[in-house]
Design a protein that fits this description.
Elements lengths: L1 H16 L3 H35 L4 E10 L4 H14 L7 E9 L5 H16 L5 E4 L1 H8 L20 E6 L8 E9 L2 H4 L8 E5 L6 H13 L2
């Protein structure tokens, strides 16, 4: 078997020796393209695995923030990320503040549907702790039971009077429910985040598994000027 293999190698070398460069490329691709493709894919897979596990391992979410509704420039999310990172204590080599903008608009239903699906997916794996949105978004999402009752949250630097309740109905026949789930973001900084200066509110996701650092991050955002 070894002798046949060596003979085959000699024959291949002899064929290639008689060809010009283009003929060699065409010949190799014609007879070995599947081997080449499999080799390239395997190398890429191994590289991606090494990159994900060794070179650039995915960081744990220290606190996740969703800005839902209005479009926010990337520079703004980067600034808020730096602000929270610079004022919170954590091992930033293994953890990260993750701020995601979920832009929803009646003018582009395709993008809106994609954003809603992404939001639900991140909620389901508990990657979101803080929700920032306008009155409409709070009313709609409060109906889904997404938010924590802030009157029960300990450690927030606010008075009970600063907690805003949103009214909603499960259906036309259901009673109106008033749910204390939001804090108005009244600083000049947040008033200039949206193009039309609409009022934004902040809430805490009910299933947050990082409540201590979430409370810390909320207090820092309320101090942001």
């Amino acid at each position: 078997m070894s002798g046949k293999f060596k003979e085959s190698i000699k024959e291949e070398r002899a064929k290639l020796a008689e060809m010009n460069f283009k003929e060699k490329v065409d010949y190799i691709w014609e007879y070995y393209k599947y081997h080449i493709i499999i080799t390239v894919v395997s190398v890429l897979f191994i590289y991606m695995l090494i990159d994900a596990l060794v070179l650039n391992p995915q960081k744990n979410v220290h606190v996740g923030v969703a800005i839902y509704g209005p479009y926010i420039f990337e520079e703004t999310t980067n600034e808020l990320t730096s602000y929270l990172t610079g004022n919170m204590q954590a091992d930033w080599e293994t953890s990260a503040v993750v701020i995601t903008n979920f832009f929803v608009s009646e003018d582009d239903l395709q993008i809106t549907n994609a954003m809603v699906q992404k939001f639900i997916a991140m909620l389901s794996v508990q990657e979101i702790d803080i929700f920032i949105g306008n009155e409409l978004q709070f009313t709609q999402n409060a109906r889904q039971g997404f938010f924590l009752d802030l009157s029960t949250a300990e450690g927030l630097n606010i008075t009970p009077q600063e907690i805003k309740s949103f009214d909603f109905q499960e259906s036309e026949d259901s009673p109106v429910v008033s749910f204390p789930c939001a804090i108005a973001l009244n600083s000049d900084y947040f008033k200039t985040l949206t193009p039309n200066g609409e009022q934004l509110y902040l809430g805490i996701i009910v299933n947050s598994k990082r409540l201590p650092q979430t409370i810390e991050a909320v207090n820092l955002l309320l101090e942001k000027k």
